[in-house]
Write a structure and sequence with these properties.
It is built from 6 helices and 2 strands; from the N terminus they run αααββααα. By secondary structure, the protein is mainly alpha-helical. The chain has 2 domains: about 70 residues, Arc Repressor Mutant, subunit A, CATH 1.10.10; about 50 residues, no CATH class. A hairpin with a 6-residue loop joins strand 1 and strand 2. It is elongated.
Length: about 130
Amino acid sequence: MRGRRKTVKISEAEWSIMKVLWDGCEKNNRGMTLGEIVQSLQDSTGWSNTTIRTLIIRLAEKGAVDIDKRTGVYKYTPKTSKDECVKSEVASFIERVFDNNAYNLMASLVRDGRLTEQEKKDIIGILSQIED
């Protein structure tokens, strides 16, 4: 795998943390404190400070989160982009569920009937832009 970056596997709980970090750090243009992360997740998850801190440490050990320890209050920032994580998750999902066949995924989504007419038009537009 020379030349490829190691993809970070993120659990469902860790995704909650990453979403808060991606959103919060983009809005504030700085890292987030543990208190800010806890406040963002408390109502939706009910997790304690300790649980959230443990998840952040795991993400840091995986290389997904950076911890700035220069000041008295630690600041947490994502080291991996949302796009990179989404691409990795989609590739893993296609490999596991659809035997690495993206066509089967697309066919399943289209047949499911959950796409609006506008979404169908947008997908057709995207497909028509693909060069062989």
